[in-house]
Design brief:
Oligomer: homodimer
Distance between the termini of chain A: 22 Å
Strand order of the largest sheet of chain A: 10-9-8-7-6-5-4-11
Largest sheet of chain A: 8 strands, parallel
Number of strands of chain A: 13
Number of domains of chain A: 2
Structural class of chain A: alpha/beta
CATH architecture of the largest domain in chain A: Alpha-Beta Barrel
CATH topology of the largest domain in chain A: TIM Barrel
């Protein structure tokens, strides 16, 4: 097969707020080859990611992503890896390229799996799709009372694990943050996994973050996520040395396998969180999962958007039995909820697993998406480089 | 002052080739505040960088760069740092943001310097603009004979230092590469600085690169640049341990200060090369220059485009007397040559220095650029988000 077409669909809620909620817009990708199609999703920033696909070449090491993809051979996983390697080399100076490639790469796996009638996780070499404990990914409330209510609601909704993030944590006194941690634990229950996501609020300030450690420890927090900037490996390692019980987690910003490896080796994280929509897709995420296994680090997906992205993000560690927890977008906006005609529901144990169906096993509900489609047009030098394709 | 306008100008040669020549297009930025204007330049990929400025917000941590810049206070260097910190936080998930910000940040320094009638290097705290030895930045020929001719030509043109990069090196037998190294040395002369740039050809393959070390050493190569992928710190360190004489150089891909720090601390490079058009502008580059000084690492600019970018790239280390060598685009395309009405000519010693004139000291020749201006238009959801502004 040869890749005949790559179509990008920019979807958005009518109103986008400053909430740290990644489900307010989406960039879906459809790849066509040999009479088959596959779907994927880029995370995030639809317009720059489209631009990185269609832009004119700047020079030999700054070519658009399209130059490495359109017309390329796609007969097996090795072809996907070859395309990814070409993007890494020929789009070396195009920073956004990894995000653009990510959705395309997922779609190529989906397409191959559908053509072979095989789920992607099996093509990766996993023997089974093991059940994962989904954690509700939630934002801290503005008050501890709100945080408590959200935690109780997640518990009532059947979640045995929850992660709270962002909100006011780190912006005021540590004692205020402690109240939120206590509230979250009270609401979700003593037997549940509770995680905390600081959204890089402390940049590289180890002391400021260390001031929150006793309260995190007292609340029995399972992991502390992204206390620092994505590249602040030294700060991660310094905090890890002071936090024997609460393990550090990070990695969502990784746009290369090397970045994830460095966060483990130099940053001493105990949980590595990979967003398949940023790191270049499923292949690089699988490479990280294997590196994590070799190091005794727990692999976790990062997913805050649709169930298409969720399925893709489960594939790399579907068969790793020890890595039990997975992120699960618990309260997505209607746009994100509309993408999958067959979302990944929790089973009677409250667990989910990557689909047994071919490819990513997600049917994109194109009719339901039509209201969210954002008409986009890019013209350069008198040529129409992009206009929103028909969604059908 | 408040930032009133940020205008992007996408310039391109009529024909762009796959040569690794970054001077084939350019993205200039003009910032206006308080009746003053300043100019900067993003490197590279004009269209995605424009898109990262104008794109609609995806969520609170994925805002367009414009959200942190337009209307912001600009009364001193601390305001520039505050704007940069806001971009880092509010555009955290927008990968291209650092490249977009880079040109804006330069323009803000230029504007402030013009308003204060002070060169940027003095605003940074340097006491003088010391002379630098410009090296001709050249590509290897397809044959060793061509490489010899280019090296002789650079010597005849008065260069006492030259760097050869890319071309066929690393794609064939080490003996073929050795012929090029010998030719380059012969052409440039025994007394000249000779550097070699491998353009990441070996990815993470230490052995393949180590096979070239004896020939590089025999040719008296001063530094070996980018043998591996930008993030391959482990490969850098492994090669450094096997190369006592030829020091490693890298860093042009750094889009954060942390990346440059890691290349020094984990990758053991002895030369750190920063592109102000990628790392977020002059402020972060200056931070790297200070980190390098503290480590005994030599700071070098990375500049393969215009003399506007060249002036910006000289500012961070203008007053560091020990860091003598600077990259100098020796054979830019006509577009890149047209940008500066007053380019940085070599003096009687063949050296250059950052201008004494206010700001970056470069007058952008808007009339000369008109033929290269690329009409660009971006529409999203029925709104015109970008169209090429008038160049005047």
């Amino acid at each position: 097969m040869r890749i005949e077409a790559v179509d990008f669909f920019y979807l958005s809620m009518p109103e986008v707020t400053t909430d740290a909620d990644g489900s307010q817009d989406a960039l879906l990708v459809r790849v066509a080859a040999g009479g088959h199609v596959g779907w994927g999703e880029c995370e995030a920033a639809p317009l720059p990611s489209i631009a990185a696909f269609v832009c004119p070449m700047s020079h030999g090491a700054c070519r658009p992503v399209s130059a490495s993809v359109l017309g390329a051979r796609l007969d097996g996983p090795a072809d996907i890896a070859a395309i990814s390697a070409r993007v890494a080399r020929d789009s070396m100076d195009l920073l956004q390229a990894a995000h653009t490639l990510s959705g395309i790469e997922m779609a190529m796996w989906d397409l191959l799996g559908r053509q072979r009638a095989e789920p992607v996780w099996r093509m990766l070499g996993h023997r089974q799709s093991a059940p994962k404990i989904p954690y509700a990914s939630l934002l801290f409330g503005d008050t501890a009372q709100e945080t408590l209510a959200r935690a109780r609601s997640a518990r009532a909704d059947g979640f045995a694990a929850a992660k709270f993030g962002w909100g006011p944590i780190g912006t005021g006194h540590p004692a205020m943050d402690a109240e939120h941690f206590v509230a979250a634990r009270e609401g979700i229950g003593r037997d549940a996994h509770l995680m905390v996501d600081l959204g890089q609020i402390f940049d590289e300030d180890v002391e400021a973050c260390a001031a929150r450690l006793p309260a995190l420890d007292a609340a029995g927090v399972y992991w502390l996520e992204e206390p620092f900037a994505g590249h602040a490996y030294e700060a991660y390692a310094a905090l890890a040395a002071r936090s024997p019980r609460v393990g550090l987690a990070g990695g969502e910003a990784a746009h290369t396998v090397a970045m994830a490896r460095h966060l483990m080796d130099f940053g001493e994280v105990r949980f590595i969180q990979i967003d398949c929509g940023r790191i270049g897709g499923i292949g690089p995420a699988y490479a990280v999962a294997r590196l994590a296994q070799a190091r005794g680090v727990t692999y976790v997906n990062h997913t805050f958007t649709t169930h298409l992205a969720l399925s893709a993000s489960l594939q790399p560690f579907a068969g790793i039995l020890d890595d039990r927890i997975c992120e699960y977008p618990a309260a997505p906006r209607p746009l994100a909820a509309a993408v999958a005609a067959n979302p990944l529901h929790r089973d009677d144990n409250g667990e989910i697993r990557a689909p047994e169906a071919p490819g990513l096993g997600i049917d994109v509900d194109t009719a339901a998406l039509a209201p969210y489609l954002v008409d986009t047009e890019i013209r350069v030098g008198g040529r129409l480089l992009y206009s929103t394709p028909a969604l059908e």
